[in-house]
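Suppose you are handed only these lines of text.
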Amino acid sequence: MRRKIIAGNWKMNMTPSEAVALCETLKPLVVSDDVDVVFCVPAIDIIPVVEAVKGTNIAVGAENLYFKDKGAFTGEISAAMLTDAGVKYVIIGHSERREYFAETDETVNAKVKQALANGLTPIICCGETLTQREQGITIDFIRQQIKIAFLGVSAEEAAGCVIAYEPIWAIGTGKVATTEQAEEVCCAIRACICELYGQETAEKIRIQYGGSMNASNAAELLAQPDIDGGLVGGASLKPDFGKIVNYK
Ligand code: PEP
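From them, the structure of the protein bound to phosphoenolpyruvate can be written out as follows.
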């Protein structure tokens, strides 16, 4: 039985002081014995947020990392910096990074390997555009994203990863994928992992749905057999996030 994982993606929101205030609001609302709770926060908020959530069930995630160990890469953040600061998870290949910062399946793969080599759990994002969905190529496209993201990753490492299926047309738009659409793709992702690594790994890896998840649609999405959690944008900045964590 896979443990559910609900992660908030704060994106480029919350100054450090606002971040601490949001932690104080959310801390009592996200208490849960059976769900892993993660706040993925902007780099500058990591240290104050790690401090603010000490002693709670909340883990802290980053929204990105660079795939090199260290050196002349102005503006970038290394995996070692993240782990030293207390980060446990890192979002990799979010569609906004692919669209605005030229990330590719290949850089996603390099970042996944860098995260794993440093003991971070990657939350690997994949998802199709509306045009791809309308063309009927959603599953083929996502299988390709997954296959490249996991190149050179062992079965043992893959089992501990998190995949977030996020249809691009559902992110920040208020348009949520239907439960059937979300389950169909998450199931196909698990089948792809099974082809790559076998049944045991496929049964262990956790697959989230992301895209306008909120307090009213979470329970139905999270009841699906292949949806093991959510990657939540807008609703993660509000008390609603507590209702998503406690969706049952
Ligand atoms: C996201 O950006 O990962 C996301 C799912 O955003 P939203 O929940 O706002 O659609």
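What can we learn from it? Residues 179-197 form the longest helix (19 residues). The chain has one domain: 4-245.
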